[in-house]
């Protein structure tokens, strides 16, 4: 049986965080009926069977999704995921010191990604930088779909029921079953259709219903990554420019 570790700490909401839903609605008023930016990817475990590094597995998943759709695929190594995990934990995570494996706060991950970058494959060394991020309402299906369609995915945090850790089946919400919460988990959503949201976790693909998302998601973010989501012409795989959205986000954050 595959071991599955959790590691997202309780959400830390910041009133200054840009609210992205309205901007996404202006940028993409008509939502495509479906989108999937990583339909046939073979996903690594990235050590999430041994350590609570799911917040950085989500980073690695986002980079793989973006670059696979817009450029050439970039796949982080296990060591790079763990190095990034160590960078956002206090005391720093050390694989040889189990007591340091305490999980991480999503906002800490996103803020460090913007300010200092995170390790990725490359030279001297490779660094990944996030351009901006904004909160989206996980109970607003259209906002989640717009983030996936326009930005290549959505980074979400869940208070995950224990049964989800013990199955490879779809995640659906049934109020009649035992939905006792096992802990916090972060995942990257890379697709949707009329009925499902597509993600990867613990080394494989998974589907989640929108009802499950609304019930168990406690934080959700749209991420702007010009470095990874833009081609040589500065636009997304669908030809959309990100400049207007980024300018609006920075104007609010500088106010």
Question: How would you summarize what this structure contains?
Answer:
The protein is an alpha+beta fold and 255 residues long. It is 31% helix and 20% strand.
Low-confidence stretches: none
The portion of residues assigned to helices is: 25-40%
Percent of residues in beta strands? 15-25%
Nearest-angstrom radius of gyration?
A: 17 Å
What is the rounded distance between the termini? 51 Å
**SSE arrangement, N to C:** HEHHHEEEHEEEEHEHH
Shape: globular
**Sheet with most strands:** 7 strands, antiparallel
Backbone structural class:
alpha+beta
How many strand elements?
9
Mean of residue pLDDT values: 92
Q: Helix tally? A: 8
Write a structural description.
The protein is of the alpha+beta class and 255 residues long. The protein is built from 8 helices and 9 strands. The protein has helices spanning 21-27, 54-70, 78-87, 106-115, 141-151, 210-216, 226-229, 243-254; strands at residues 35-36, 118-120, 126-128, 132-135, 154-161, 181-192, 196-201, 204-209, 217-224. Strands 1, 4, 5, 6, 7, 8 and 9 form a 7-stranded antiparallel sheet that branches. β2 and β3 (126-128) form a beta hairpin. α2 (54-70) packs across α3 (78-87). The protein is globular, with a radius of gyration of 17 Å.
Essential attributes:
255 residues, alpha+beta, seven-stranded antiparallel β-sheet, two-stranded antiparallel sheet
Secondary structure layout plus pairing:
Elements: H1 21-27, E1 35-36, H2 54-70, H3 78-87, H4 106-115, E2 118-120, E3 126-128, E4 132-135, H5 141-151, E5 154-161, E6 181-192, E7 196-201, E8 204-209, H6 210-216, E9 217-224, H7 226-229, H8 243-254
Antiparallel strand pairs: 1-6, 2-3, 4-9, 5-6, 5-9, 6-7, 7-8
Helix pairs in contact: 1-5, 2-3
